[in-house]
Automatic annotation (TrEMBL):
Keyword Metal-binding: yes
Gene Ontology BP term (one): molybdate ion transport
Taxonomic source organism: Methyloceanibacter marginalis
Family annotation (Pfam families): SBP_bac_11
CDD domains on file: PBP2_EcModA
Protein name: Molybdenum ABC transporter substrate-binding protein
Gene3D superfamilies attached to this UniProt entry: Periplasmic binding protein-like II
């Protein structure tokens, strides 16, 4: 019995030595970048990522949510390589905490803010100072992203304040976790009106645009992108460069965004 045990122990030890000496053919690490991106980018960035996959063989992993939520997740240690924000403020938030790679930040896209209604709605509106938004809503609510933290909500609140109608509608809001959630409320007919980006309205055939908010009624809508300090994917730089290239620009423009020209 003891001899048999020694025999098998010897065989096990020999096998362990052989395995250690042999080349280990383990699967290669996934080099695809992980991207945290504002919810409003989904349709356009999915198309860009699909093109990138065809060219590079790598499929970026993209998580979409409210910019504010993503920034907080990054601050708390969520693993990602790239952050694309829907405003400058949340990118500044991460920069102040030394969480983005210095010199990697650039302005990628711009957008417009629009007032939408369900496709079959008979409502009309001319957006301007003192326009009768409260009357248009009636007993309904205005779908909007969270006005305290989410970029689209902040832009919307600023526009309504600038036009002098915030006080009339601030108690008639249906605040959503992100701009795409606000879009769905109008698309499903759960809210008679909503404030979203022009690109969001373009993405949903069940809504129509009643008007565009004047650009001077809110801060410029700009989407900065940057490499995160914790980035591990070797393809991070290449994907960021692709986002600034002509192929990606065509995709973004087709989905209702404007491309910010690259600075020399």
């Amino acid at each position: 019995m003891l001899k048999t045990l020694k025999f098998w122990c010897g065989r096990t030890a020999l096998l362990a030595v052989c395995l250690a000496a042999s080349p280990q053919h383990l699967p290669a690490a996934d080099e695809s970048p992980t991207v945290f991106a504002a919810a409003s980018l989904k349709n356009a960035l999915d198309a860009v990522a699909s093109d990138w996959q065809e060219k590079s063989g790598e499929k970026p992993v993209i998580s979409y949510a409210a910019t504010s939520a993503l920034a907080k997740q990054i601050e708390q240690g969520a693993e990602a390589d790239i952050f694309i924000s829907a405003d400058q403020a949340w990118m500044d938030y991460l920069a102040e905490r030394n969480l983005i790679e210095p010199g990697s930040r650039f302005d990628l896209l711009s957008n417009q803010l629009v007032l939408i209604a369900p496709r079959g709605s008979a409502l009309t509106a001319t957006i301007g100072p003192g326009f009768p938004l409260s009357n248009l809503l009636g007993d309904g609510r205005l779908a909007i992203a969270g006005v305290d933290a989410v970029p689209a909500g902040r832009y919307g609140k600023a526009a309504l304040e600038s036009l002098g109608v915030w006080g009339e509608v601030k108690d008639k809001l249906a605040q959503a976790e992100n701009v795409r959630a606000a879009l769905r409320l109008v698309s499903r007919g759960e809210a008679p009106l909503g404030i979203v980006y022009a690109s969001d309205a373009k993405a949903d055939p069940n809504v129509r645009v009643l008007g565009t908010f004047p650009e001077n009624s809110h801060p410029p809508i700009v989407y900065p992108a940057a490499k995160l300090k914790a980035a591990t994917s070797s393809s991070t730089g290449a994907f960021l460069a692709y986002l600034r290239g002509p192929d990606a620009a065509s995709r973004f423009e087709a989905h209702g965004f404007s491309v910010v020209p690259a600075t020399p």
